[in-house]
Amino acid sequence: MEFLDGTLALLCAFALLAGFIDSIVGGGGLIQLPAMLLLLPGVPLPTVLGTGKVSSAAGTAAALRRYMGQVPIRWRAVGVAAVTAGVFSFVGARLVSRLPAELMRPLVLGLLVVIAIYTFWRKEFGSIHAPRLPERKEPFYGALIGLVIGFYDGFFGPGTGSFLLFAFVGLFGYDFLSASASSKLVNVATNLTSLAYFASTGHIVWHIALPMAACNMLGSTLGARLAVRKGVGFVRVLFLVVVCGLILKLGWETFKA
């Protein structure tokens, strides 16, 4: 399987941009996946997804490494969420072949609209890091978030990072920056689960995946660094932009369907 140097350069550029956005508020798939589908015509969809997952997993891990030590992460609660999400992401991926995932689109679209309106009108939402749950209860709620969002990520996927961010802010009382850092740990778990599946089934083009992964890591590192420097307000604004992008994307797909 051969690709022109120009095609690979474009894929790497989109991977860098996707890593930058995803490291701050999630939503990198909005950029990377459509670019891969456009630039890799004729490549089977599972292979496109598997190749892109290498890039996404590497970028998410790079972002998490950048956040560690600079942003408070409640490791016990978030760790439980990550493990649970990894398990149920696999369950969701197995179930997707048996149920029509298209049924999820109108529901997810409605939830994203509610999230956008709520975040826009509640100006103080996510501005202060004030964990509201007792520490002994956080792992239970972390497991609940991991179960629901992990299953969703494996079954359908779009907006996973944004849902994680909103859950950590709304339920746990984290600010947007801490929620972004926490969501990266959960994303690492779900990405690794998916990556293991695609690798085991041979759906990865490694000479495309590895350069894209390097660029995604660079974008993620730069994005996480900017988020730490700019603070909560910057993350909040970008979160709203990405959620609105998801609404437009899913709305268009729902309208076409």
Automatic annotation (TrEMBL):
First-listed, main subcellular location of the protein, grouped into a coarse class: membrane
Membrane-spanning residues: 33-52, 73-91, 103-121, 141-174, 194-219, 231-252
GO cellular component: plasma membrane
Entry superkingdom: Bacteria
Cell membrane listed as a keyword: yes
Membrane topology value: Multi-pass membrane protein
Entries under InterPro entries matching the protein: TM_pro_TauE-like, TSUP
Localization: Cell membrane
Key words, A-Z: Cell membrane, Membrane, Transmembrane, Transmembrane helix, Transport
Pfam families given in the database record: TauE
Similarity comment: family membership: Belongs to the 4-toluene sulfonate uptake permease (TSUP) (TC 2.A.102) family.
PANTHER family, alphabetized: MEMBRANE TRANSPORTER PROTEIN YFCA-RELATED, TRANSMEMBRANE PROTEIN YFCA
Protein known as: Probable membrane transporter protein
Organism, scientific name: Hymenobacter aquaticus
